[in-house]
Specification:
There is one protein chain. The chain is α/β, with parallel strands linked by helices. α2 runs parallel beside α5 and α5 packs parallel to α6. The chain has an eight-stranded parallel β-sheet. It has a domain of about 290 residues: Alpha-Beta Barrel (TIM Barrel), CATH 3.20.20.70. About 30% of the residues lie in helices and about 10% in strands. It is globular and about 65 Å long.
Length: about 425
């Protein structure tokens, strides 16, 4: 496609065919904890695309959204370990975990309208003291709740399909992994082929994505477009008809259309939805995202998962010394009851008054994500201010998910449609 035609190409010329679905090829990513809310996912589905919810800290989300008490029950059960660093006995109640996932999915699916789909982002790195058992409970809870699709993220998921092969919806629900290389895709396909259950789609995430990255410190050396081209070529060579969905740094509809023109089935986008009304971030945090400058971006090793994480440098989680919240949360505990933040906290000295000094190098993701203190973001977060209006009081006007979705769907020439200006500072805040 020549340059002029590419500039005028638009997403709405394409469709994402996935089993029984014929979709607008826009997938809203599953940002956690409860940043991609049910309302955001349902808006994408209503408009004919795919919306994700996330299963990050799903018991906490269930408690907040649906008046359950799983977090309190877990905390009370394990209260005897609160003042120590041995967390080997801190475990999730698997039925509570399955039920919390089912709650979140069922409450979402019961409100679904339109021709689109609702998926859930399920993370392998949420080891939760028992990696296989807790992952199985979450996967089964999602399927029991009627989810349309499951995106397998934050890990290679070599054994994930085996965990659910006996579930009655194993071959019905759409399943796809997130990978950042052909090598990772090959590893997943090898494990999937043993069960004769190839993925229904694959999301290819590049180095400009938000949150945890599937790259090392050399992430700058990689380019999403090159990785997508390699994946498409590999699938052609292997004669595998698996839809490819690029993700990470796709900021305009023209960006999106360029991937569709090269053979991608859809695109996954997220950053621009962080300043929408439907997004789960508190209003004050949405303003922190909207004011970001490029210099505010950092890719840091503070995550206990071991993955680099992209976030804003003024995130309140930096320099904190919060006591580990393993009894209530514990989503990153290994099967041995360890966590990199737990180790860092234990090693941090106290001042002359006996107060713990700021913990260096790691942050307690469980606590800070529950408080929206980790401002994880995509690389182009600093462009959000150019997609909306600055109001007289200095704040930024929030958008609707439909406005952003439609802009991706119909815009051309790398133009971003501005919303109708708010009539007063009180509107859309």
């Amino acid at each position: 496609m020549d340059a002029r035609r590419a500039e005028e190409d638009q997403v709405d010329r394409y469709r994402f065919r996935l089993g029984q679905f014929e979709l607008v090829p826009i997938v809203v990513g599953g940002m956690g904890v409860d940043i991609s809310t049910s309302d955001l996912a349902l808006a994408a589905s209503r408009l004919g695309g795919v919306g994700h919810i996330s299963d990050a800290m799903v018991q906490h989300v269930s408690d907040r959204r649906y008046e359950t008490h799983y977090t309190k029950a877990k905390s009370e059960k394990h209260r005897q370990t609160r003042d120590g660093f041995d967390k080997t006995t801190v475990k999730f109640d698997l039925e509570h975990l399955r039920q919390s996932q089912l709650n979140h999915v069922r409450h979402t699916m019961d409100r679904k309208q339109g021709a689109g789909a609702v998926f859930i982002n399920v993370m392998e790195k949420l080891t939760m003291g028992a990696p296989g058992d807790t992952l199985k409970a979450r996967l089964e809870g999602a399927m029991d709740g009627g989810i349309d699709g499951i995106t397998l993220s934050a890990g290679l998921h070599i054994g994930s399909l085996k965990l659910i092969e006996q579930h009655p919806r194993f071959r019905d629900v759409k399943i796809g992994p997130i990978v950042s290389s052909v090598r990772a895709l090959k590893i997943f396909l090898k494990s999937a082929s043993r069960l004769n259950r190839l993925p229904d789609y694959v999301i290819v995430e590049g180095p400009l994505a938000g949150g945890h990255l599937g790259f090392g410190d050399d992430w700058r050396e990689y380019d999403l477009r090159n990785i997508v081209a390699e994946v498409l070529e590999f699938l052609r060579e292997e004669q595998l008809d698996i839809p490819v969905v690029p993700a990470g740094g796709i900021f305009t509809g023209t960006d999106a259309a360029s991937y569709l023109a090269m053979g991608a089935a859809a695109v996954q986008v997220a950053t621009r939805f962080t300043i929408t009304n439907e997004c789960g971030l508190p209003a004050r945090v949405k303003q922190e995202y909207a004011r970001a400058e490029e210099a505010d971006l950092v890719v840091s090793g503070v995550s206990p998962t071991g993955y680099p994480i992209r976030l804003l440098s003024y995130s309140p989680c930096f320099g904190a010394n919060i006591k580990p919240q393993c009894e209530a949360f514990g989503y990153l505990l290994s099967r041995e009851g360890t966590c990199a933040y737990l180790d860092a906290y234990e090693a941090t000295p106290v001042d002359d008054k006996g107060h713990k000094l700021p913990v260096q190098g790691k942050v307690c993701l469980c606590y800070h994500f529950s408080k929206f203190n980790c401002y994880t973001c995509g690389h182009y977060v600093y462009r959000l201010k150019d997609t909306t209006h600055r109001l007289p009081d200095g704040r930024f006007q929030l958008l609707t998910a439909e406005h952003v979705f439609r802009d991706y769907q119909f815009s051309t020439g790398h133009r971003v449609a501005m919303p109708e200006s708010a009539l007063s500072p009180a509107v859309s805040l």
